[in-house]
Each structure stands twice: as C-alpha cells, then as structure tokens.
Amino acid sequence: MISDERKTRQERVALATQAMMTAARTAPKSRGIDIIEIITVTNPEKEQLVNTMLEMGLNRDGENTRIAEAVVIIGTPKSPLALNCGYCGCDTCEQNKGKSPCEMNSVDLGIAIGSACAMAADCRVDTRVMLSVGRAAKKMGLLPTCNEVYGIVVSCSSKSPFFDRK
C-alpha cells in the first residue's frame, strides 16, 4: 500500500484536533470543576466562521483562518467557583453576582488552551491562538453558554501560515 501525505492530511489534522480537545478537557481545573466547552470546526462551517470574521473587519485573521485546515474553539461561561478570592474585584463571589467573569474561569481556560497547543506541538501541527476567531465564534453562537471564547487555528503544511502574517 502507498499512502500519499497530501491525501491523508485532513485525516491527520482531525486526529490532531481530537487529541487537542482531549488535552484541553483533561487539563487541571480550579476545584476540579470542569466548565470548559470545546468544539472543532472544519468546512463548510469554517468558511462561515471566516465570512463572519471578514464581516467584522477582521480581515488578516479571517484570511489566516481560511488557510487553516481546522479550528478548535474553546470557551468558558461565567461560573463563579465560590473561592472568594477577590481577583474579580469583589470580596466575595456573592458580591460579584455575574458583573464580571470569575477569574478562575479565565485561568482554567488559559490552562486548557495551553494544553491544547502543547498537544498540537506534539502532533507537529502549527497553531495560533486567536481572540478574533473567538469573537466571531461567539457572534455565530457556536458556544452559546460561553462568555469567553478563543479559537486555535490549526495547519498541517510545509510552513506555518500563522508566522509571517500580513
């Protein structure tokens, strides 16, 4: 059997994004409470995401997303963890009452994103974390329960299209 790399690329990207989602899911979470939401978007939905980005004026990142083979979308809802840490600016979670995101949610999201990107590196695919992708995904309602959303564009090509951006 002969297997051409170009013909199996999409399968390998799918395996890499599945591993990225697993890495994000199994990343440590505050108080052991998992509220992270994760999806992978490929065409035709990826092209809808690109069009939303272009409509929002996010042209450079939209074109980078178009080049990507897949996008991992990851987010977190506002969900106070009753730690009363004060990092949100309130002394207690009760005082916050959803005025601002729970800082622990943001920390957990960052750790999950880092774990996903580390897994991508282990799979030897290129990535870039983009807030702009998250904004467009949020506008499209891709993670409807989440208020903080980021996108991780994924590419499996000879050179990362996310490095020398114009």
CATH topology: NADH Oxidase
Supply the CATH architecture: 3-Layer(aba) Sandwich
Q: Please mark out the parts with pLDDT under 50 across 5 or more consecutive residues, or reply none.
A: none
CATH superfamily: NADH Oxidase
Coarse morphology? globular
- Rg over CA atoms, rounded to whole Å, is 17 Å
Biggest sheet layout: 4 strands, antiparallel
Give the count of helical stretches: 6
Q: How does this structure look, described?
A:
The protein is α+β, with helices and mostly antiparallel strands and 166 residues long. The chain has one domain (20-155): NADH Oxidase. Helices cover 46% and strands 15% of the residues. It is built from 6 helices and 4 strands; from the N terminus they run H-E-H-H-E-H-H-E-H-E. A 4-stranded antiparallel sheet has the order 1-2-4-3, sandwiched between helices. Helix 1 packs antiparallel against helix 5, helix 2 packs antiparallel against helix 3 (59-67) and helix 2 packs across helix 6. The radius of gyration is 17 Å and the shape is globular. The model has no long low-confidence stretch (mean pLDDT 93).
